[in-house]
Design a protein that fits this description.
- With about 190 residues, the protein is α+β, with helices and mostly antiparallel strands.
- The protein has a single domain, classed as Glutaredoxin, CATH 3.40.30.
- The chain has a seven-stranded mixed β-sheet, sandwiched between helices. Strands 6-7 form a two-stranded antiparallel sheet.
- β6 and β7 form a beta hairpin.
- α2 packs across α6.
- The longest helix has 15 residues.
- It is globular.
- It starts with 5 loop residues before the first helix and ends with a helix.
């Protein structure tokens, strides 16, 4: 008669679970392939891959913008409001700074508070100018630095699936809220 103690049973179960687990590979067409380090509004370092597992709406903005960026953020907030409670559990919102030298984590946090962004659902990121340029190129966001720390840029919102693949892009204007919300529910 074989006696099993709890430790032995735990080891066997753990080994079986390990054998049954498949290693997760990031799809080749995922922006999560980018391994750049970002700082969020809390000063925490993370990679884009940390957003794996949820759909994400992503836009590149800068906090002191007085033109396009407030419209983009308002549009994303309206999309969030348009989602059902169940849908909100599966969608995150990411804002990446186009002016990383001035949009520090502290500035991003103040911006989030002033815009009443729920930081359980929203992430504001800053990185190096090179990392911002790389992400912009991957998302096909065009931008050009102007005088006085201003930026001329595309006003696109990019929808990612739960594995970081681009599913669609929409212009970040309020008239696209319903269309964007509907499209989010197709994948």
């Amino acid at each position: 008669m074989i006696k099993f103690n709890i430790l032995t049973v735990s080891k066997i179960i753990g080994f079986m679970l390990l054998l049954s687990m498949k290693s997760y590979a990031v799809p080749q067409d995922s922006i999560y392939q980018l391994k750049n380090n970002w700082l969020n509004q809390d000063g925490k370092t993370l990679t884009l891959g940390s957003f794996n597992g949820k759909k994400q709406l992503v836009s590149l903005i800068y906090t002191h913008c007085l033109h396009t960026c407030p419209t983009i953020v308002s549009t994303m907030q309206a999309i969030e409001s348009n989602l059902t409670e169940d849908e909100k559990q599966n969608v995150g919102f990411i804002l990446v700074s186009l002016t990383p030298t001035t949009d520090t984590p502290e500035v991003l946090r103040e911006f989030a508070q002033s815009r009443k962004l729920n930081l359980d659902k929203w992430s504001l990121l800053t990185g190096t100018p090179e990392d911002v340029r790389t992400l912009a190129m991957v998302l096909n966001i065009k931008f050009q630095d102007m005088d006085d720390n201003e930026v001329n840029h595309s006003n696109l919102i990019t929808a990612l699936d739960d594995e970081g693949r681009i599913r669609f892009q929409e212009i970040g204007v309020l008239s696209n809220v319903a269309k964007t919300t509907d499209k989010l529910n197709t994948f």
